Amino acid sequence: MLQNPERYTITAALPYTNGPIHIGHLAGVYVPADIYSRYLRLQGRDVLFVCGSDEHGVAISMKAKKEGITPQEVIDKYDGIIRKSFSDFGIAFDNYSRTSAKIHHETASEFFKKLYEKGDFIEEVTEQLYDAKADQFLADRFVIGTCPKCGNEEAYGDQCEKCGSTLNATDLINPKSTITGETPILKSTKHWFLPLDRYDAFLREWILEGHKNDWKPNVYGQVKSWIDGGLEPRAVTRDLDWGIDVPVEGAEGKKLYVWFDAPIGYISSTKEWAAREGKDWTPYWKDEKTKLVHFIGKDNIVFHCVIFPAMLKAEGSYILPDNVPANEFLNLEGNKLSTSKNWAVWLHEYLEEFPNQQDVLRYALTSNAPETKDNDFTWKDFQARNNNELVAIFGNFINRVVVLTNKYYNGIVPTPNELSEVDEQTLAELQAYPAVISSSLERYRFREALGEMMNAARLGNKYLADEEPWKVIKDNPERVQTQMYVALQIAAALSSLCEPFLPFTATKLTRILKIEDKLDWSTITETSDLMPAGHQIGEAELLFSKIEDEEIQKQIDKLEATKTANIAENKKAEPQKDLIQFEDFAKMDLRVGTILEAEKMPKANKLLILKVDTGIDVRTIVSGIAESFKPEDIIGKRVTVLVNLAPRALRGVESQGMILMTNNAEGKLVFVNPDTEGVGNGETIN
């Protein structure tokens, strides 16, 4: 671990421009990276925070094919949505680039050529899957088949998302092309490989020995497992029609593999920033006094902790990451987030549906951050975090302080009298919070750090609740001057302590308190006179507002609609039964009928006893539909009845027929009935 770095280079995983940003991306990568960057800036550190759109690779091509547009149209569409979402949400990048930019193509090409000229690649002709009908080699994500490890029939050519195994497309059992559905053939093609096995000793020393005490256990464990499993050469080129051309002779029609070019996007984004700001980019990537930190999700651990460092080591002039504090996955309402299935809370939609509540989502995601294990986001928890914590604790304290200061002193900070032991103890506790929060943030424990910041708000709430200035003012106004002075110091400290976590709240609070210069955390530690007597504050405003049940139910209903749509889209029809002859069908007597009476079968959860007018008679039919319908709701219902089914006794009641039913997209029973008016009971169905 680098001690006392001169500068920080912070990267956040480049989002694929094949879809918008959702809460899983935010919780796993962008919110913690933004908290860390904002915290360091508050400490006066030299910080560069870069990111950019990842615009190459198969995901883009797949999206283009699905939407019937060009890859360029895909990346332009989603780059615009992503940029605006990040900006509106307050993710404070110093530079947000895109890998389709000229500077990135140049940087990635130069990086490849340097390794190529040094002889760091292996050139091999291998057999890869080829779709003869589409006349193209199949990139990993264009192949689907059965995983050889767990038997999942929908594994991709690079990874099984069910068991997490890393695969080669040729490992799949019964592979199919996702383009045409055809079974691919093997065809020879030439590619360049990075021999990861050459870097085994380096990686073991650098990570397994050097970082066993400071990297997160989930990161270290995954890397160790990968290295211990045996490193093999990894292809850095692909047969694709979208991406960066491989810049050597004999590589026509081939592109740099996206995992090779994407992390170089951090470097090209830095170059873009430096050119705009008139700075030198090299110290941020090539000075040993720079601390490089990658914020990523757990699906990117191997790329950032094994492959990219091996690339940097091979190149020779770059620093290596000091830490890669990857998070686990965030689930949604008990199910895995899925872009393709629309099972997500999209950031751009949240910003429209919850205007001016960016910090509520930041708070909820940080409070429930999947730092050491997968966690679950629920809308009920989101509501509770806002109403019971932000509103009831933080917002309540600030509102009380500002309202009372305006009521008693016309908004002017009062001059304190002699401090009591409680006052001194409270201010001493307040002075300790910057160091406590810093300690958590320096160890990438963002959930813990947020909790400590909220404890500072709890300190203020408890102080006011215990001191009760609204009661003391009647008999001892001099004491209230001191009480309100102490409470105002806590409010002032919170305006700075909350900034990394709740930047919009910090801005609003500094405006309410009329604090012109942002308070340095060292000032909070060193002095208790953060807002001097005589300072004029503004009028009270609510920092947070209560979120009502109706707003939450609307979001839950939205997800339920998505679930229903997914079931309908993915539902597979039952296979056809054995062939029958017309005479077999003609034996069935199907009639239109009407349900006249309905009651539950005693001591049976599933059965209803129905009286049905079949047009030829009124008969009793016992039907197993009680879990789907209330008796009173189906009286008068038109139904289709099989009337010549042999009678059968069910719990002592003879059933003389069968009602025809099917299932809808939600799996609920639905009557198969005539929908045309004027069809009478007893009409036959042929």
Description:
The structure is a single chain. The protein contains 21 helices and 25 strands. The chain is an alpha+beta fold and 686 residues long. A 5-stranded antiparallel beta sheet has the order 19-18-17-20-23. A 4-stranded parallel beta sheet has the order 3-2-1-13, sandwiched between helices. A 4-stranded antiparallel beta sheet has the order 5-4-9-10, with no helix packed on it. Helix 5 packs antiparallel against helix 6. 39% of the residues are buried. The model has no long low-confidence stretch (mean pLDDT 93).
Short description:
Helix content is 42%, strand content 17%.
Task: Give keywords.
686 residues; flat; four-stranded parallel beta sheet; 21 helices; five-stranded antiparallel beta sheet
Annotation, overall tally of beta strands? 25
Main β-sheet: number of strands, strand sense, barrel status? Answer: 5 strands, antiparallel
Q: What is the count of DSSP helices, taking H or I runs of 4+ residues?
A: 21
Average per-residue pLDDT, rounded, comes to 93
Rounded to the nearest angstrom, the distance between the terminal CA atoms is 80 Å
> What topology, given as strand order, has the largest sheet?
19-18-17-20-23
Instruction: Note poorly predicted spans.
Output: none
**Shape label:** flat
**Fraction of residues in helix:** 40-55%
> Which radius of gyration do the C-alpha atoms yield?
33 Å
The assigned structural class equals alpha+beta
